[in-house]
Amino acid sequence: MVDDEESSSKSVRRLAFSQRLSRWDVKVSPYLYISPFFLLFALTGLFPLLYTGWVSLHNWNLIGGQCKFIGLENFGFVLGQPYFWNAVGNTLSIFLLSSVPQVVLALLIAAVLDANLRAKTFWRMGVLVPFVVAPVAVGLIFNNLFADQFGLVNEFLGLLGLDPVRWHSDQLASHFAIATMVNFRWIGYNALIFLAAMQAIPRDVFEAATIDGAGRVRQFLSVTVPMLRPTVIFVAITSTIGGLQIFDEPRVFDQSGLGGADRQWQTLTMYIWELGWGQRNFGRASAVAWLLFLMIVLIALVNFLLTRRIANQGGRK
Amino acid sequence: MSSIPMIRQTAGKGAAKAAARRPNPRAGRPRNRGGAGDIRRPGPLTYGALGAVLLASLFPLYWSFLVGSHDSTALSRGIPLLPGGNFLANAAKVFDSIPFWKAMGNSILVSTVTSASVVIFSTLAGFAFAKLRFRGSKGLLVFVIATMAVPTQLGVVPLFIVMAKLGWTGSLWAVIIPGVVTAFGVFWMTQYLRDALPDELIEAVRMDGASMIQAFWYVGFPAARPAAAMLALFTFVATWTNFFWPFIVLDPSNPTLPVALQLLQAAHFVDYSVVLAGAVLATIPLLLLFIAAGRQLVSGIMQGAVKG
After folding, report:
1. pTM flag (> 0.80)
2. pLDDT tens digits, residue range A108-128?
3. Do the Cβ atoms of B8 and A193 come within 8 Å?
4. Contact, A276 vs A56, CB < 8 A?
5. B147 contacts on A by Cβ (under 8 Å)
6. Cβ contact (<8 Å) for B36 and A238?
7. Does residue A76 contact residue A287 with C-beta atoms inside 8 Å?
């Protein structure tokens, strides 16, 4: 009986081998195909982020390298620095001045683009032009527009009979100028995101609102905005993650790149750079990086809850 | 290292073709039908508002060219309204003071290599996530999506330490390697392939004896082409405009364009007509790309925003 079975399976054996190969192919290939991302993320994303925590517990120099374990000393040092808290304030201030107008203006522009326009593509492309200008170039251009002397903005204020603003020494004014650069680059981009989401709203909802006697403004506030809730939350959160790490624009807002004589516009990422590559202290730079990380997580969460509530209230009106 | 524009892109779940399929407005849509505000042609007020927005988004570039085409003292003599004849002279000064052409070459190289590798690796991974069944695929995809929200830029210190250990600081590899595949890209291609590639097609080529990688190459990749082109475009723009990490890891003698551009202002004596001429020169390549492919950028952003 045993012999019988063996002889019959002999002819099948070759087939079995190629089948096994094929089964192996089916099993292993997917993992092979997704592995580049996971390997790379582990090596250049996750590991550095975690290792930042390790470095932050050491006395670690750019040149000397790892020295000795000092516990939370770097955190203590950094938290005692006025420049750290100054950078926290600047980062939050620039973030608020850029994110809120960005979302509001993008929504308004999207509403205008949502009309049945002639030459749609032309207008859509038009608002997206700033997106292809590098933040460094944007920074250099606006640095000149906001120049304290002979800057276009101040000349214009002069025409209106107003005093020139000291954009490069007054703290809040500098934040406004930098936030303007961020807004310039991202409003059109976000407007297109909102526009797409608006067009996905079923049109009969608007028809019903029209029949109920809602005007355009009322429709925008009571129908469009609430229905865009997920998109608004999304844009708010991504702009939190990006906005709190802002570096390029404030870096080129003056020659020195440190954020002004009194660090009026030094952001946390700029502070990380100053500690790490200016003062060559990697331990302290890592401590700030970790603190910024915590701050981003925290604010993204608050943002999520807040935008959800605001959008909810819009719906109840 | 995923950058902001890439993350921002993903307002929703990827490649819905709703926006793209929208009928061409010029192709005989009923006009002036009245009733729903959607169909009515908007009035001059709407176009006026859009004109103002367009002006605001173009003006800074015009200003840059305006200042860049005059000499250093023009601004102190009053605001010029029309371009002057000094642009070429300023451009020559730009080429003298920074390694402009080298930076341009580096930017082209880094952006091209990064886009190509992001497209290949993302499509491969997207093919696996969208079309192949394997244990843990759901959880792993969720992990990919979650990593998009991780501010990896904050890992610069260890990344720099590693690059220094490898002896890669100052080399373009240090800029290219961290960007060769992005979570956004994987997510984007997964979403697209899920709809665009019928399972039957893969089964058919598998029945004909194709291996997995052959199935990917002959069926998966061709189906992914439209989304791959958009991904390439966005990656190119994001890489080209990236500043923070290249600024840290590259030498001023071998920079990418944004790193070089910033050097114009770091000198002791700053001539803004030269700085802004440099800003114009550095923006021209992407403006050309925008003229050629801006339409795709627009629909890419809008497709990324819909489904979800």
Report:
1. yes
2. 999 999 888 888 899 999 999
3. yes
4. no
5. 41, 45-46
6. no
7. no
CB neighbour burial string for A235-264, b if at least 16 within 10 angstroms, e if fewer: bbbbbbbbbbbbbbbbbbbbeebbbbeebb
Q: Which tokens hold the place of B130?
A: 């969208």
**Which residue is closest to A209 within chain B, CA to CA?**
B36
Quote the CA–CA distance of B242 and B4 in Å, as a whole number: 10
- Residue B46 has its nearest CB partner, among A112, A130, A285, at A112
How open is the CA angle A295-A296-A297, to the nearest 5 degrees?
90
CA atoms of A281 and B236, how far apart (whole Å)? 33
SS3 A60: strand
Collapsing DSSP to helix, strand or coil, A35 comes out as: helix
Number of H helices, E strands in chain A: 15, 2
Cα gap A267→B123, rounded to integer Å: 37
Spell out which residues of chain A touch residue B258, defining contact as CB-CB under 8 Å. 134-137, 248
Tell me whether residues B244 and A269 touch, CB distance under 8 A. yes
Low-confidence winner among A171-175, B6-10, B111-115, B156-160 (lowest mean pLDDT): B6-10
ipTM: 0.87
- How crowded is residue A38: how many other Cβ atoms within 10 Å of its Cβ? 18
Span A33-60, pLDDT tens digits = 999 999 998 888 888 888 898 888 988 8
